[in-house]
Amino acid sequence: MSEIRGNVQAFILLALIVAVMGSAVGVINAKHQARTAFVELQALQKLRDDRQVNWGRLQLEQAAWSTHGRVEQIASSRLNMILPSEDSIKVIRP
Predict the structure, then answer these.
(1) Contact indicator for 75, 81 with CB cutoff of 8 Å
(2) Is 84 left (phi over 0), alpha (psi -120 to 50) or beta?
(3) Are the beta carbons of 76 and 82 closer than 8 angstroms?
(4) How many whole angstroms separate alpha carbon 25 and alpha carbon 14?
(5) CB 15 within 8 A of CB 7
(6) What's the DSSP call for residue 29?
(7) Which residues lie closer than 8 Å to 82 by C-beta, 6 or more apart?
(8) CA dihedral angle for residue 29, residue 32, residue 38, residue 39, rounded to 10 degrees
(9) N or C: which end of the chain has fewer CB within 10 A?
């Protein structure tokens, strides 16, 4: 009877050791996945920040290209457009 009891205790001890080792491997795997995800998150945040900076530059550039003075200058220099004289402007009322 004591021999069976010793075998059961040995089996339980072995099962606990295997469970602890499996748990340790699981913890190591979870930490590795968390670190990998964090590195990817940082890379994506940097990409987002770079794109936001570029978007701001594009908005400033668009604002500069669409100013009234610039449009008027291009209309007169490239398209040979001129402002009409006051005599040639007709106001039509409904």
Answers:
(1) yes
(2) beta
(3) yes
(4) 17
(5) no
(6) H
(7) 76
(8) -140
(9) C
DSSP state of 69: H
The H or E element spanning position 27 is helix 2-65
Pull the structure tokens for residue 80. Answer: 């040979």
pTM of this prediction? 0.58
Gap between the Cα atoms of 65 and 58, Å rounded: 10
In tens, the pLDDT along 34-88 reads 999 999 999 999 999 999 999 999 999 999 888 988 888 888 999 999 888 888 8
Of 10, 30, 7, nearest to 18 (Cα)?
A: 10
